[in-house]
Structure formats: C-alpha cells, structure tokens
Write a structure and sequence with these properties.
mainly alpha; 8 helices; 81% helix
Length: 192
C-alpha cells in the first residue's frame, strides 16, 4: 500500500468531516453563496476519495468508516440547510423527509446493536442514492425551484438503499465494508 496515496485519500475524507461544521456555520451566518459552493465541493470530494481509494488500492476499514461518517455529516449539513434556507420545501415534503430520517435512524440503531458501530457497506445502491441526494441538494441551493423529479428519485432509491442496509446488517454477522449489495451477499451465502 502506498502510504502517500493512503494519507492523501483519507485527508480528502477528513476534509469533509471538518467541512461539515463549517457548512453549518455558513448556514447560520447567512453566507449562502459560500455554503452552496463548499457544499457542492464536499459532494465532489466524496466521489473523488472513493474513486482514488479504489484506483490506488488504499481502501481500509478505518478509511471506510471515516468515509461513512463524513457522508453522514455532509448530509446532516444539507438537511440543516434545507430546514433553515428552504423551510417551504421542507413543509411540502415533510412526510417523505421524516420517513427517510426514521429509516436512517433505524438502520443506525440496528448496526450499533449488531456491530457496536455504524455500518459502512458502500453498496452500489448507497452510491446511487448518494449521487441522487447530492445532485438534488446541490441543485436545490443553486436553482430557484426544486427539481421534484430528482427529489422523488432520490427518495425512492434512498428508501431502497436503507432497507437493503438494514437487511444486510441482519444477514452479516461480522462488520464488513465494500459490500456490493444484497444480491451479492445472498449469492455468496448460497455458494457457502
């Protein structure tokens, strides 16, 4: 493992962890222009660090855990921004957002009960959900009106992702990272 690449990739992830509180600060100090660009950059670096980790073969359990924490912190900053900056959208879509939060908290609780820490599967569905969530949230702050088709697509894929992750936690007795998805886990179990 190339230590420089390892530290560089984890440095990008740490940037996202540090950027999340800064994003929240920018929201509450009404620095919306800086917030939206930095928020978009955080999502871009999420894609970048995962790609670089795979390209340079510097994936690790710690890196996967840090990446999951950074992902969650970035999404929390986005949710706070929606609450503060887009309250009318929040009111319109409250039922959908509450359902996602309940599923997310359920998934976290199940993972903590099973593994003593958050899951870090990085499934294909999670990657698609993150791409849709990030695209929607970035556009929400850059455009005048929400892109509802993108919101509902992100909602649907995220529900599927969270349900899949809950099932994976229940199926996998040991904490794992970089699990492709439920199909591959069931296929592996069938072979064993």
């Amino acid at each position: 493992m190339n230590k420089y690449s390892y530290y560089f990739v984890n440095g990008i992830t740490l940037y996202r962890m540090v950027a999340a509180p800064l994003l929240v600060f920018l929201i509450f100090t009404e620095q919306v222009d800086i917030f939206k660009w930095l928020f978009g950059f955080s999502f871009f670096t999420d894609v970048l660090d995962g790609w670089l980790a795979r390209k340079y073969k510097v994936t690790s359990r710690m890196g996967a855990t840090l990446d999951s924490i950074a992902d969650d912190l970035t999404i929390v900053a986005g949710i706070i921004a929606v609450i503060v900056l887009k309250p009318e959208f929040l009111k319109q879509q409250l039922l959908f957002i509450v359902l996602l939060l309940v599923l997310f908290i359920l998934q976290l609780c199940v993972a903590f009960l099973r593994y003593g820490k958050i899951s870090s599967f990085h499934t294909y569905m999670a990657k698609i959900a993150a791409l849709l969530q990030g695209s929607f949230l970035i556009l929400l702050f850059f455009l005048r009106h929400p892109v509802y088709v993108l919101f509902y697509a992100a909602f649907l894929v995220t529900v599927i992702d969270l349900a899949e992750e809950i099932i994976l936690v229940l199926l996998l007795p040991e904490w794992e990272t970089n699990v492709k998805g439920l199909y591959w886990v069931l296929k592996r179990k069938k072979r064993l």
